[in-house]
Amino acid sequence: SIASPAGALPIPIARAGISVARVLPALTQANCLVTDVLDMIRPHMEFTFNNILSHINTVFVLRTKVSNSSIEANTELAKEHTRMRLKGQMLYVGETDLVLFLCSPSVLNLDDLNRRGLYLSDIPLHDATRDLVLLSEQFEAEYKLTKNLEILTDKLQHTYRELEDEKKKTDRY
Question: Structure pTM?
């Protein structure tokens, strides 16, 4: 949850979900500002409460500022690769004057999910990301099986050729 300050003041974080707080412990610190931990990738605008409210029906993509992995990356490309992207929707809760960011991590497969310290159960059931991760794993497993089948077929053909050669040798003698 993102608290509502007046105007364009820095936006404090009121609450963080269990999974997000586990991966980004800085969010649980007192007086943590959303701009200290996250950059707004989309939509392209200044990260203020009023701008969020004016684009409330837009898909938001936020990215962590620092690596959430325990391994420090040296190169800029490696740093970019370890930064987690969160994609979701901002909801304004008028009773509490807060904005709720319902999001999911952008990941490619289970390895990517685990590398970020997350589990499949951390992704909401209704989110298509969960299905995409599972489909990616299924495709990868099928690809490995196909590759192994091709290797075994090549070995079998080679063995068959050797057997034919041995048969020819025995027939000659």
Answer: 0.69
